[in-house]
Every structure is written in C-alpha cells, then in structure tokens.
Amino acid sequence: MSLHLSKPGILDLSGGDKNDMKYIFHLQLEALVVEMQDPKTGVKGSEQKLNVTTIPHVITGKDIVAWITNKMKTTAEEANVVGTMLVAYGYIYPLQNHKKLVMCNDSSLYRFQTPYFWPSQKWVADDSDYAIYLAKRNIRKKGLLEPYEQVHYNHLHKWLNHKWDFIVMQATEQYRAGRERKKPDRVVFDCQERAYWILNRPPRRTHSALDCGPDRLIDPNASEKESFDLYRRMNIFYQQAIMRSKVKSSVSLGALVKYVTTYKTHDPFLAPCLPSNPWQTDSDAYWTLNMRSVDLPTKMRVERWSFSLFELLTDLRGRDDFKIFLKKEFSGENLAFWEAAEELKWGTASSMKSKAETIFKTFLAPNAPRWINIDGRTMGLTVKGLEHPHRYVLDAAQTHVLLLMKKDTFFRYLKSPVYKDIQKKALNPEPHSFSPAQLEQNAQNRSPGIHPIILWKQEEEEKAKAAAASAPVDVKAMMSKIDRK
Amino acid sequence: QKVLVELKITFSQCSKNERNYKTTSRKYMRSPLSPEMATQEVQLNETLAHLKTESENLKSKLEEERAKLHDVELHQVAEKVEGLGQFIMKTRRTLKGHGNKVLCMDWCKDKRRIVSSSQDGKVIVWDAFTTNKEHAVTMPCTWVMACAYAPSGCAVACGGLDNKCSVYPLSLDKNENLAAKKKSVAMHTNYLSACSFTNSDMQILTSSGDGTCALWDVESGQLLQSFHGHAADVLCLDLAPSETGNTFVSGGCDKKANVWDMRSGQCIQSFETHESDINSVRYYPSGDAFASGSDDATCRLYDLRADREVAIYSKESIIFGVSSVDFSLSGRLLFGGYNDYTINVWDVLKGTRVSILFGHENRVSTLRVSPDGTAFCTGSWDHTLRIWA
What ipTM did this prediction achieve? Predict the structure, then answer.
C-alpha cells in the first residue's frame, strides 16, 4: 500500500496564521515525517503480525531514532526527544502500549499516521465525531469500550441526546463501510483512528501534546488602530530612545564578561561550594554557615562583599559589618537615611505620611539629630516634596547618599581595619568527603532547619531593639546637659 | 501646533525640577530634560501619512544610532574566556503531590522552600530539601498560572483564571486554614499570567492576559501604577536586581519585551526581535541585560546599555518553544525549560549548548534557580517538580 500524500504541509498558513510561528513546528514535523517515509532514504519498514492479521509498513523505535540521529547530526537521546514529539503530536503512533505516547529506543513497533488524521488539519475533533466513533465501537462489540471511554460515552449520550439518532446512523454507516474493506486495511484504519482519538481525547495520565492550556486572548496580528495618538506616542518614544545615552557594545559586553569572571568562583554550578552543596550531599552545613546572623562569616561571603556596595548592602550580615565601620567613623547617618528611604519606598501606602514625617525630623530638618549632608539643591527639592509625600519623594536624596557611599565610603571600608579584621577571622570550611554510607545517613536525617517565619520574627525584634538603641539623640539637649554639669 | 504646545508644557514643568511620579493615565512618553528639543524643527503636518513616515524615519534613525555603537559581537568578546568543562547535573529531588499540571513555582529566600501552583487550583508550599509538604491551599479557580513567595517568607501570592492575585499569609500551625486569611490584592480584566513581590511584602507586581502590568499595595489592594504598552497578552515579568530597584521587564504575545520605569509607568526600552510569543523573561544578575524564551524555540540575550539583542541561543534540533529561562549565579549559564520535555543549558557568553537534561514526561512549564544558586527547580505538566544540582 503506497502512502498517498495529496499535499504535504496541509497546514493552511494563509491569512493571519502566516505569522504564527507557534505552528511552524507542525510544518517541520510534517516535513520530517514525509522524509522518513521516502522509499529509498527513509526508515525501513516491514510487515508485522498483529494478532492474526499482518500489517504492512511497521517500523521499530530504534530504527526511527537511528534515522533521526543521522539526519539531525545529534545524539541518540536528543533524537529520542524529537521522536517522542512526533508520537506526542500524533504523526507516528505506537502499536503496542498505544496509550503511552513516547518513542522508545528499542524494538517497540510504530506506524506513520495517515495525513487525514494529522493534527495540523484545520478541522477540530469535536464531540459529535467522538460520539460517532464510540458508538461505532459499541455496535461492533458491546463492552469493548474502556472505562474512561464508557464515561465519555455516557456523558455524550446525555448531552448530544437530541442528535443521537443521527449519530447512531452515521456510526452504523461507517461500521458497514468498514466491513466491506479487506481485513488488513480495516485493522490498519482501526489503529489509525484509535491513535487519533487517544491524542484528542487522552485518557487519564496520558500526555497528549495537543493539550495546550488556555488560549491566548488578544490576537497580536489584529493591528492596533492606526491613529494620530499611536504615531505620536511612537515618535516620542523613538526620539527618546535615540537621545538616550547608549554604550558601545565592546564596553557593555566587556562588562558582562567581567561580571561572569568576578563571580565565577561563587557560582555553585561552576565551582564547588564549600563545604558541600546541600542538594548533592544532603548536608545543610553550607546553609548553616551562611545564615543571616552568623558570628563569623565564611571567606567566600566576605570576598563577595568587596564586589560592590550592592552586594555589601544586600547581605544583611555584610550590612552589619559596614555599620560597625560607619559607627567608628561617626558617619552612620547616610546609611540610616538610605535604609529609612527604602522603608518608605517599599512600605504600605498608608504608612507613607508618618514615615515621611519621621524621616524629615530625623535626617532633614535643620538641626536634625542625624542630619545628612547633601547639597542645597537636592535638600530644597526633597523638603518641598515632603509637603505632599509620595513613595518616591526621597529618590533624589537617596541617590545622592548612595552615590556618596558607593564612590567614597565603600572603598574606605574595604581598606579599613574592620574589614581586614573580618577577612582574617572569616571561616574557610574544609570540603566534605562523605562515604556512600555517610551519604545514606545524611539522606535519612535531612535537617528541617529553622522556619523562615521564626527567623523573620527574630529579625524584626532585632531591628526594633537596634532602632530603640540608636534613637535620635537630641544632641542639643545632651550638650546643654553636659554644659550645665 | 498642538503637539508643540504639549511638549512645551512638559518642559516647563520639568524646568521647575518637579518630576511628578504620581499615578497618571497620560499615555505620552515623557521626553528627557532637553531644551534643544523645543527648538528642534518638528514637522507639524497633521496628516496620518506624514506621521507614519516620520515614525518610520525615526525608527531607521534609531537603528542607525544603535548600529554605530555596535563594534563587536558577544562571541568575539568571549573568545578569551575559558571554556566550560563537563557538567554533571542530576535530579536530586522529585516532588510529587500535585494532581495535575504544575504551572508555576517560586523559591523562598531561605534557599530551600518553594511554592508551586497547578491546573487543578492547588497551591503547595514545600520544604524541597526534606520534600515535606508544609502547606496546601485550594484556590477557587483552575489554572493557577502565577505564584510567588514573599521576601519575608511569611506569605505567598497566587492567581490565574480568576483574574486576581491573592495573598495568603503562612502560619507555623500546619492545621490552620490558610484560606480564611486570604487577601485579594490585584484585579485584572483577564487571566493573571505572572506575579512577583517587590523588595518587601507590601507590594506586588502583576502581568495579565488583558495586556497590562500593574503594581499594587498589598495592605489596601490599591492600584499604585499601571503599565500600558503591550498590544496583546503579557505573559511574564521580572524585577531588576539593581540597587535602585526601579525597573522591570515584561514579555508578551505581541513578541515584544518591554522595560518599564516603575515610578512613572513609562516604557523606557522595547525589543522586538522574537518571532513568536515571549513566555519568559529574566534579568542577568548584574541587571544590565536580560534573557527571554519564546515559542519560536529560541532564547535571546538583550543588552540594556547598548540597547540591542546580542545573542540568540538556538539549534536546528530544537524546534519546540521555551517556556521558562533563568541564569546561574554568575550569569555564565542560562537554563531553559522547553515544551519538548527537556532542559537545555546554554553557555551565555559563547552561545553554545553545554548540556541537555531529560527526566520530565511532559512539557517543562516553569524553571527557577535557587536564591544562592546551588540548584534549580523545574515544574512540569507531568505533575511533578524536580530539583537539579
């Protein structure tokens, strides 16, 4: 029996779908399948006995995988993946184990699906067709339906009751037409049809690739209504983009490479993490050593603080160390202001007003106890903005303070005795070397660690204590107290 | 004349140095502070055709400017970087418990707990290290496509076909009914595709099938800022890791990846080089670039400072869409979860594929690297989650 392909690539790409890359893979799969059936260069098929009948053009999984491996010049495993996709999308169907839509790289038997049943066909497998199919099988032999099919059948019988006569008539017609075919042809067609419905009405636990999930709603091909508004917006956007300062590729790409090089030894996928990766050895020592409030951090952690101010501030343990340094320099107010501004920015909308007031009193008001030294212009802007405080009112001041810390304070910190001290004292854990028996042990005794909620509560308590301890000291009052003495 | 007047108003406000970042429904992009533009000769012929031509001219001028600065390719710069060795990445944990397709997952900052959501409405919080399920909530809707863990570790957010994003505070008491304390925060006019907390538990950023993104105040449910600009469903978003933390990137069905200013709601950069829906966007760890994964079977890298696409990660044998991408800690590796059930690992600098991982029995729908980079987790339509290291 020669495979009669009316036209390969039945997917109709006219109109909007022409741009629908989503479905281009159907074309690729179809092209692949057509090539695989080439009598000279395709996959070699043979006749196989299925029950009593002999079916032509049966191929084995390993032949398919070998052919794809050769064609795509890749490994057998990747070829297997492509093979599985061909089965999952219904271009090839398994003869044994017909509900498992995977490609097995062994002597499992498969056949090519007839193009009539290809998923790229535009017609949707609707419920009436399914009802006719189930009814037809019921006519042939009662009790032939599997339990999940019986459920479908009962359901459809209820919902399509109004056209049930038509369905039974169609089913009977098809059954009679089937009887008139030769037995091998009938068996082949039955297999093809069964494969089609496994794909479109998958039984539980069958992974059919046609199961796509909810539809995307807005059609991007429907062009946005062309209006003055649209073009004016676009033009302003383009003008802005043209004027925005851009950097030469060599500079920005160089920066990307530099980042990778800097962090290379810190990436657990590229360098072993000490003492060991918890997921690999089931020992959580790595996490315990790197907890938030550990007394002595590890050398790697301390090294990471030196990479950028951002790293130092993001690691709260690093921020603590930075604060120790700032206290010694009597310049803690910049960081305190930055932290307060962060609290404002990321806080609840309702707390905005009170936070803004506190910040003004503490940092910005004339003679404020923790007055920050920023330039007059920024100060003026910020104070004016605080009259009607909003989330980003401190942006200018915060940026100024951050830049100051980044360009000056941070580098002095790295050269300071505080940092050098912690560098010396930092721990350098020995890499673990667990025996297989020990690894077994570890796997049995995985530690639950401390729950993040508990850690969070502890952190909040610490913060409250710290805030109370460094509450705005009324310098003037303190001074006058000392004077009076 | 109309156009010029509006520009003038913008400038005079700016010249008073009062940047107004309050929520605004004005769709006009703000021009930067530049008195030159006011005196620039702008064609004021209001015919649509004229504007259209101007638009095309500006577009080519932008391309020209970009091209002038394009002096080297990424793989050229990467030539001096040493190659990567062989990788042994295996499944270290398999989390079974969802009764249906896993759609989304997120890591807790404690580096071991995760939250995952599935098609049947279940949201589960796991300690992935011990594989214990700690909490389970059943949402009143199916297809919970988005979930996120709060930075404090004390709450999770999720949403999907209910068009909402809800926050559930977690509790130490395993028997407590979390649904009782549920808080509805975001409200869209179509499905929720992604959500993320910002630097605190108090704000959530969402993206939706209605074509918009939005920033919400958790406590009051108030809309703080909305982001309009996508022409179709927005499918994904990611917040910038920079210390200023004021931008995020989103990807949509209109094949565009847009970078937004969270304060003003404006789109500041836009990239349209993919050939199909963008399913996932993720910032490079330094914040100066981002990667995207799309239904066109490619992942791409975009350089924000040079304002261009700088790499395409694709292979002839990979024909199925990418559902999810993420970087390793150093940014050297890009992990992609694909619809053909596999995970491909790419060398970001050299553009080659270093590894392909098998294990899932249906499409990989979500992929995230853990906060300390020790592992990455994948969720799949085969109902399971896997931790790889």
Answer: 0.87
Residue A271: the pLDDT is 94
Give CA–CA dist B222/B189, Å, rounded. Answer: 16
**A253:B77 CB<8 A:** yes
Average pLDDT, chain B: 88
Q: What angle do CA A17, A238, B277 make, to 5 degrees?
A: 25
According to the model, what pLDDT value does residue B193 have? 96
What pTM, to 2 d.p., does this model score?
Answer: 0.88
Cα dist from B192 to B131, B141, B257, B321, whole Å: 28, 12, 18, 21
Provide the shortest C-alpha distance from residue A463 to chain B (in Å): 14
B200 and B265 both lie in a single domain = no
State the best of B9, B88, B243 to mutate against chain A, taking most chain A CBs within 10 Å: B243
* Chain B residues whose beta carbon lies within 8 Å of the beta carbon of residue A214: 143, 161, 191
Which residues make Cβ contacts (< 8 Å) with residue A433, sequence separation at least 6? none
User: Given a cut of 80, is residue B255 above it in pLDDT?
Assistant: yes
Give yes or no: residues B284 and B273 share one domain.
yes
User: B291, B298 in Cβ contact below 8 A?
Assistant: no
Q: Is residue B303 located within the same domain as residue B243?
A: yes
**Is residue B135 assigned to a domain?**
yes
In total, chain B counts a number of residues equal to 389
Answer whether residue B29 shows pLDDT above 50.
no
Domain count, chain B: 2
- Going through A335-402 in order, the beta strands assigned E by DSSP cover none
B173 shares a domain with B136: yes
How high is the pLDDT of residue A471? 61
Q: Which residue of B has its CA nearest to A243?
A: B32
In a domain, B335, yes or no: yes
Q: Smallest Cβ distance to A260: which of B242, B307, B332?
A: B332
Q: Does residue B6 have a pLDDT over 50?
A: no
Asked whether the predicted pLDDT for residue A148 surpasses 80, the reply is yes
Question: What is the percentage of chain B residues whose pLDDT exceeds 90?
Answer: 77
- Regarding whether B260 and B211 lie in a shared domain, the answer is no
Q: Is residue B213 part of a domain?
A: yes
Largest CA distance in chain A: 118
Can you give the residue range of the structural domain that contains B162?
97-228+360-388
Write the DSSP symbol of residue A364: I
Q: How many angstroms away from the CA of B295 is the closest CA of chain A?
A: 6
Nearest to A235 among B51, B65, B203 (CB): B51
- List the CATH number of the domain containing B123: 2.130.10.10
Q: Are residues B186 and B293 in the same domain?
A: no
Which tokens belong to A316?
Answer: 């709260």
- What are the beta bridge partners of residue B226? B214
A410-419 residues labelled b (16+ CB within 10 A) or e (exposed)? beebeebebb
Token couple for B98: 């969802």
User: Which band of pLDDT confidence, cut at 50, 70 and 90, is reported for residue A484?
Assistant: low
User: Chain B residue with minimal CA distance to A218?
Assistant: B232
pLDDT tens track for A19-64 = 456 677 888 889 999 999 998 888 888 888 877 788 888 999 999 9
| Residue A126, number of CB atoms within 10 A of its CB | 9
**B137 shares its domain with B218:** yes
Q: Are B69 and A248 in contact (CB < 8 Å)? A: yes
One domain, residues B311 and B332: yes
The model's confidence at residue B8, banded by pLDDT at 50, 70 and 90, is very low
pLDDT tens readout for residues B84-111: 988 899 999 999 999 999 999 999 999 9
Q: Which tokens sit at A34?
A: 């057509």
